[in-house]
Design brief:
The chain is α/β, with parallel strands linked by helices. It is built from 9 helices and 12 strands.
């Protein structure tokens, strides 16, 4: 990576405070700007939902947080530490892959399409990362993995293969697999978008329980009821920028921008109308 592309603007990295601290984040593909100066802070224990139209940069920004995508400007730190880069003066230099993986291990991520290893059982899917990355004792890893499967209601399917599970069950396994590394931050990239409608509820229930436990979560979602009921804040992205960042009770009743209002009226009819006086 050309480090000169990461000198635009300041590079603040707080030593303590927010779990996620993003400033002036840019990202381009083939000359087209996908992220255009994104600023976001997420406090420890907060649940932040990101909504927006397709192509607004939501998933790209999420992937930049754990350095699945490199950035072209600005900075992102997690719990006071840059992910994917080291700072020297006013420039950022990309780390070797081994160091990127080391910093990434405390960030769990759940994708749209589960990403389970098809040739491994459910239990093996959960155990592989802590055994390889952290070299924890096998018996300890197995016991913890089984406890997580119990929490997501799937301990009885520990020896099943992904192909033997429903989509909702596979996504619950994916959540447990992310949790087995004991992350300090969980990222969800539209975790219910690939599921049949009748399976969405079982995944959202697990996510609600996780939020209630105090886990810091950033969730890219089209599930407006989840965003309204669970999120501490809802962020609206459009054309690579954050256009609103509000508490759900404010955003869903009185959005400030026309773009956010139009989006909410499309996703949740009447959601952005103020209550009728009684």
């Amino acid at each position: 990576m050309n480090s000169e592309s990461l000198t635009r603007g300041s590079i603040p990295v707080p030593a303590a405070g927010p779990m996620v601290f993003a400033r002036g984040v840019f990202k381009s593909y083939g000359g087209a700007d996908v992220l255009r100066g994104v600023d976001l802070e997420v406090q420890k224990g907060e649940v932040v939902c990101i909504i927006g139209p397709s192509g607004s940069g939501k998933s790209t920004f999420l992937r930049c947080i754990n350095h699945l995508e490199s950035i072209g400007g600005g900075s992102i730190s997690v719990d006071g530490e840059l992910v994917g880069y080291r700072q020297q003066g006013r420039k950022l230099f990309e780390l070797p892959l081994s160091q990127i993986c080391e910093r990434r291990k405390e960030i769990g991520m759940v994708f749209q399409h589960f990403e389970l290893f098809p040739h491994m059982t459910v239990l093996e899917n959960l155990m592989i990362a802590p055994k390889v990355v952290t070299r924890r004792d096998t018996a300890e890893v197995k016991a913890y993995a089984l406890s997580l499967l119990d929490k997501v209601g799937l301990v009885a399917r520990a020896n099943s293969y992904p192909s033997e599970l429903s989509g909702g069950q596979q996504q619950r396994v994916a959540i447990a697999r992310a949790l087995v590394m004991k992350p300090k931050l969980m990222l969800f990239d539209e975790p219910t978008s690939a599921l049949d409608p009748e399976l969405v509820g079982e995944v959202l229930t697990v996510m609600r329980d996780l939020a209630a436990s105090g886990m810091t979560m950033i969730v890219v979602t089209h599930e407006m009821a989840f965003a309204r009921d669970v999120a501490d804040r809802v962020v609206v992205m459009d054309a690579g920028r954050i256009i609103e960042d509000e508490r759900p009770e404010v955003l869903f009743t009185a959005p400030r921008t026309d773009r956010a209002r139009a989006l909410l009226e499309r996703l949740v009819p009447h959601a952005s109308r103020a209550p009728e006086p009684t």
